[in-house]
Specification:
By secondary structure, the protein is mainly alpha-helical. The protein has one domain. It is elongated. It starts with a helix and ends with a helix. 0% of the residues are buried.
Length: 55
C-alpha cells in the first residue's frame, strides 16, 4: 500500500481530533459549519493530490 494514503488518513484523523473538542466545548453552530467547510476543502485537496500524477 502506498504510504501517501496512510499519511493522508493520519492527517485527517489528527485534524478531526484537534478541531472536534473546540466545536463540542463551545457548542457554536456557525463555528462548526466553518470547520466543516474547512475539512471539506481539505478532503477535496487531499483527493486531488492523491489521484493526480506524482511529481
Amino acid at each position: 500500500m502506498n504510504l501517501r494514503y496512510i499519511f493522508a488518513a493520519v492527517a485527517v484523523v489528527l485534524m478531526l481530533g484537534y478541531l472536534a473538542p473546540i466545536v463540542v466545548k463551545l457548542k457554536d453552530v456557525p463555528l462548526g459549519l466553518v470547520i466543516l467547510a474547512g475539512l471539506g476543502m481539505m478532503a477535496v485537496d487531499m483527493w486531488q493530490s492523491l489521484t493526480g500524477k506524482e511529481a
